[in-house]
Fold:
Amino acid sequence: MSDTSQQAVIAGASLLTAAAAHRYLYLRLVRDITVSPRLRRAGRATAAALTVLVPSGVLAAEYADPTRIGWLARPVFAWVACAAYLLMALAVLEIPRRLAVRSLARRADAGSGTSTGVGQGKATGTDTGTGTGTETGRPAAETPGRDSVADGPWVVDRRLVLARSVALLATTTAVATTGYGFHRGLGPPDVKTVRIGLRRLHPSLTGMRVTMACDLHLGPFFGRGHTSRIVRMINDTSPDLVAIVGDLSDGEAEDLGPHAEPLARLSSPHGTYFVTGNHDYRHDADAWIETLAGLHVTTLRNTRTLIKHRGGAIDLAGVTDVEGEREHDGPDYHRALADRDRSRPVVLLAHQPVQVHRAARHGVDLQLSGHTHGGGFFPGNLLVPLSQPVTAGLATIDGTQLYVSRGAGASVPPIRVGAPPDITVVELHAL
Structure:
């Protein structure tokens, strides 16, 4: 599929999704809670505008210069996140809402049945609300809820209160969650220390510190200031070695290279190493690798290097991301891991946790990965296990230890709920 065709498909799918989502939000948050024609017209116009604006912002973030679209990306993705939580909150409340509406309808029907005789005996044509289908002069068709001659003012009022309560609860939950998510996602990552024991590790290497950061996602939300903060935090851990495990950027090196320049200030005895992530292949990975070389960052592109430290040694290897297969730059485990000295442990940098299965077949002792963002925000944490063996933290897969960081940045929308960003200090210990 050509790039033009792919963009057309993405645009069409985004437009249909946005239209369906905003139609539902209009029904629950505007039509159900007001009978004002003016407010309903304003709600429809807003829904239509957002239906067009959201896909435009998504496409701009994917294909435009991220340094020039912050003014559009920030409000669009803030709304995307809020709308997602609105939809989830309304979905959770949908069943109790329907049950409550049915209960009100049954009570209305019961009340109508007991008053039929009285109404027939006093057929004056001036009964308030029930016989005429009006409430304080308003046609019943304009009133939220079930339109029926059996619906009296009490029933209509209760339905309106119910609709407004649902809308208020959903909106409050969504706004609060989105605000917290942006605050956590755009704020400083946590610094974690994880002790990992390795077989064959020379005792003199006990305490060796590998500080890893991944998923910086330089782009419309994360720029030079974000990189500088990450560099300061990494240097404060006094690392022996620094590993940047993929997804450095969401844009071209030509546009975002200056935002990566603080990486040149990373300080460790054994240097800084990088492996590609899936996002890096969306924006000319070769150009980024060349840019990083100028910042004293070494890319392990299906290669390894010997790290000698305090009288001992480990092999540090790195493979490209599986996304590189589309660019004829897929992971080559044999090239990176074959013909090595088996008396030394090997630590592998691989962006996606799922790569651990092939790494285990090559006798890797420890794989360091990112990619998952720890699920990012609900329901992402439920979806990650469908494609990755570990969402976050340390596990052993097929005899190989795997540590997965939640990442130091975030892709769009850049929110974190229940999965705070992190920088991890991996402290090696001899077993």
